[in-house]
Structure of 2-hydroxyacyl-CoA dehydratase:
Amino acid sequence: MKKIGLTTTVPIEVLIAAGYTPVDLNNIFITCDDYLKYIDIAERDGFPKSLCAWIKGIYGACLENDIEEIVGVIEGDCSNTKALIEVLQLKGIKVYPFSFPHSHDKRDVENEIKKFMNMFNVTFEEVEVIRERLSEIRKLAKEIDELTYIENKATGFENHLYQVSLSDFNGDIDSFEAELIKVINNIKKRQPVNKKLRLGYIGVPPMTSDIYQFVEKFDAHFVYNEVQREFTFPRVDEGINIFHQYYDYTYPYNIEFRIKELKKQIEERNLDAIIHYTQAFCYRAVEDIVLKQSLDIPILNIEGDKLNTLDARTKLRLEAFLDMLLDVKESTKC
């Protein structure tokens, strides 16, 4: 099957039905041992330093991994993607645009997905067959999530890793399914680890994945990863078809829709606080203002840039925040 790169989560059911292997360029970028080389490639080609590292990483990953076709999300994701795909087109990359309509109207979402299916010459029936197959694997990801916030056996990093991987199913549906089954069986054998602080992680998946291990030093545990969970389509059982499934996806639409689900998860998971991760030079950082006014829970905003590990200043801010939460929790008991 021919590879096709993704700038973010899109209806991959369409791509698989068309005979493609979807590859999330974000995952290629961030999991590379020498991930900075991708950023360097972009900056050498003229991308400014004052631009999100993810965009530059996607660009470099696309060129370096012989990706000849990509799907670029031009509405509902990064505001810089449109410029990115224009440059990639200059490099000879074939680009298929896709939009999550700002209106978040069911008819508009359906029309966009139908246009996408027409681009790849696949039928609704063919796409639904693939959707049913992928739904089986998405249910496994939901099980890992429950092992995290209900049984307290899966770590926050495991929750992050296996959910974020559903953006492209690691490029091999059957192998990824087998891996998830094995991981779930191993996690189930563990004893629960009950930390005093139950944290939620919201915002784009982090450049600095060591945040999960770092917070565990302070008797804290991430039991919710917002966007990573959305990549798994956790309400897939409620989706009557592909149109409804992508209509019910919170990440690309208006913030009010997103906040509604956040409030539900804060209560259901009994969260003590939230870490809101934003990327340097990203417009989504402004959303922190709305989130802090809309959510009745302590929120710490941290920002990542090029580093894939937490810097000293961010560690200090996290430590102070977690210490404060622990003190409040202890005093409440008294």
